[in-house]
Structure formats: C-alpha cells, structure tokens
Write a structure and sequence with these properties.
There is one protein chain. This protein has helices at residues 9-35, 51-57, 60-90, 96-106, 113-123, 130-137, 148-176, 180-189, 193-221, 225-230, 242-252, 256-294; strands spanning 37-41, 44-47. The model has no long low-confidence stretch (mean pLDDT 85). The longest helix is centred in the last third of the chain and has 39 residues, at 256-294. Helix 7 (148-176) packs across helix 9 and helix 9 runs antiparallel to helix 12 (256-294). The chain has 295 residues and is mostly helical. It has a two-stranded antiparallel sheet. The protein starts with 8 loop residues before the first helix and ends with a helix. It has a single domain (44-294), classed as Orthogonal Bundle (MetI-like fold).
C-alpha cells in the first residue's frame, strides 16, 4: 500500500515562490509584453512583433557597446581571478592574523557601489586626488575625464580594487577546506610549491573558482553605477557599457519598446556566455583529472 504523500512541504516554499514571482517572473513578463508593442501613449499600443528586436540588433551603437563590454569583462576575469588566487595563497591560515587579514580584505566589499565611484572620482583628480596628483608629479599625462584610455583603465582598476577581495575570500575558503593529509603526502613525496598548487590546491579550489568566475563575469557584464558616477559613460562612449546603453534607451530616450527588446537580448547574452564559461571550465576540469590519473 502506497504511503500518502505529505504536501505540507509546499507550504514552506510557497513564500519563496511568491517572492520570486513578484521580483522576477512578473517583471520579466512585463518586459516581454513591452518588447512586442509600440507604446504610443498610455492608452494606445500597437503590436509590432519582432520589429524592435530586429531594429536593436542592427544598431551599430549596440555593437560597439557589446564589444566594449566583452573587452571589459574579459579584462576583469584575466586580472581579478589570478590576483584573487595569489592573495588567497598569501593569507595566513590560522590565528589572530588570519582573522585580521580577512576583515581587512573584505573592507572594500562593504562599500556601496555609488560610493566606490565617488571615491575614485576624487582619487583620480589631479588637483586633490592622491592617484592623479602622484601621476602628474611623475610627469604622466593622466586625465580620466578627457582621455578614453585613462577612463577605461581607471574603471578597470576601480573594479579590480572593489571585487578582487571576493575572489580572494572564495579562494581562501577553498584552500581551508583541503585536508592536511594532502599536504603531508606532498611533503613525503618532496613535491615543490608549484606542484602542490598545480595538483592539490588548484583542483580543490576549482569549485569555488567556478563560482568566482561566474559571479565576476555576470557582475562585470552588468556594471553600471561605478562608471556612471566616475565618468558618466565618457569621455565620448569610452565607458558606456551595455547597462548604461540600455538605461539611455529606456530613461533618456524613453523608447520602451526597443529598450525592452534590448533588455531581453541582454539577458540572453549573459545566459549564453555564462553557459559557455561554465561548460568550458567543466571540460578543463575533466581534462586535468584525466592527465592527473595518467600521470
């Protein structure tokens, strides 16, 4: 005789489902609705099908913003992941020093995004900012408000300063989860520090590093507040990333139809690239395991 199924568990997750519906599903459906209509005024709407999607995909400014965004996100991953791993490896493993370093490392993560932009806005000024004044004193012509390269590099360095500690903390957690038996076996075999990192630490950190890569990619691909406060997207369009391009469409020009279509395309681009990153890292992990087994 089959036992009756207890349906009370659904009552426990019902509040979560309701919150998700109101915070994600319903707004998404609203955006889908706007993306297929031409909103002439609050009372007049015309169904246009995929016209806005085709229009957005042909926009050369979108292509430029996408390439700019991809370059920035790739630079963020290439800098922050190795730097975060190095920082995690150099942090104390135990004692009061470990606690103190953890708190110090995490300080930048506590600062709100708009405040980060304001800090670097002042920090980079040649008249009162430490960075700008120091570079000017060394004879470097640095001007993040007038030079496109300086602006892009300043936004990159600002993001590295703000978010590398997240990678370091995730890597540190992965390192602390490695049993001491692995290190004892490595010492017995006379393994070098690089060998310990290559065959013990890096494989054991792969899970948390995958989380770090996905989090940093998604967050950098949606960056808005920091460059908006720091440079306003300029000079020109040097730091106008996809999120700011979308905001200009929706708020600045009030083109709700094209903005809604672009937001869906934006969402699908992030999903696709995260899928590629995840499967690429999974495939790399499988290859490493195979090499280690044959070795």
């Amino acid at each position: 005789m089959n036992k009756p199924v207890n349906q009370k568990a659904w009552l426990m997750i019902l509040p979560v489902l309701v919150c998700v519906a109101f915070s994600a599903i319903l707004p998404l459906m609203t955006v889908v609705n706007y993306s297929v209509q031409d909103i002439i005024d609050p009372e007049r709407r015309v169904f246009v099908g995929t016209e806005w999607f085709a229009s957005v995909m042909r926009d050369p400014e979108l292509h430029e913003a996408l390439l700019r965004q991809l370059g920035f996100s790739l630079a963020v991953l290439l800098v922050e992941i190795p730097l975060g791993v190095l920082l995690a490896l150099s942090m104390p493993a135990e004692g009061w020093k470990a606690s103190a370093v953890l708190v110090i490392v995490a300080l930048s993560l506590l600062i709100p995004w708009n405040v980060v932009g304001t800090i670097w806005q002042i920090y980079g000024r040649a008249d009162i900012g430490l960075l700008g004044a120091s570079l000017s004193a060394m004879g470097v012509d640095y001007n993040y408000t007038g030079n496109a390269t300086d602006a892009w590099l300043t936004v990159l360095v600002m993001d590295v300063w703000h978010w590398t500690p997240l990678v370091a903390l995730l890597g540190y957690a992965g390192l602390r989860a490695i049993p001491d038996a692995y290190y004892q076996a490595a010492r017995i075999d006379g393994a070098s520090k690089f060998a310990v990192f290559r065959y013990i630490q890096l494989p054991k950190m792969r899970g948390v590093l995958m989380i770090a890569v996905l989090l940093r990619f998604m967050d950098s691909f949606m960056i808005y507040t920091e460059p908006f406060v720091l440079t306003g997207g300029g000079p020109g369009n040097a730091t106008t990333f996809l999120s700011q391009f979308l905001t200009q469409k929706a708020v600045g020009q009030f083109d709700l139809g094209p903005a809604a279509a672009f937001s869906l395309i934006y969402f699908l681009i992030i999903l696709l690239l995260c899928f590629i990153l995840y499967n690429g890292m999974q495939a790399l992990g499988t290859t490493d395991k195979t090499e280690a087994a044959h070795g």
